[in-house]
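Encode chain A's predicted structure.
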Amino acid sequence: MPQKTDAVKKEQQEAYKSAVRILGIREHNEHELREKLKTKAYDDIIIDGVIEELKQYDYLSEARYVETFLRSRLKKGETPWFAAQKAKQRGAEAQALKLALEAAEQSFDAWAACKDILDKRDPMRLYKQDKRLWQRQMRYLQNKGYDLNIILQVMNDAENNEDE
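Encoded structure for chain A:
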């Protein structure tokens, strides 16, 4: 019997080391980490113990994961709501997601962010001369989560600013 407990302890230590390595690369939520450890063929009981230990030492934090995830998606030009939907699909905890989304929305300026994306994608504003390009830019911005009204304001305002 003592040999079995030693084997279980050794497996738990290996799973813990593996989890710490995974978390060292980037923040993960509990769902993602659990899935990665399952692919390494660790038992569910071992995984539960590892996750509890990681939470105890604050190595695994849903709040930190959601904040990091939203920040990275916002840098890629997505709206906070759109980024939150992606985090939800990845198994982010609802309460942590709600708090991070509220914080992100307070400091988010949709018009300015949309304009920045459009300026980066088409600095020469070629979309004004080509209907297909106009539609393409609109679809791109919609796929980033921007509201159609904001997109039209930005695209029409860019036209007006160039005329001056």
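The mean pLDDT is 92.
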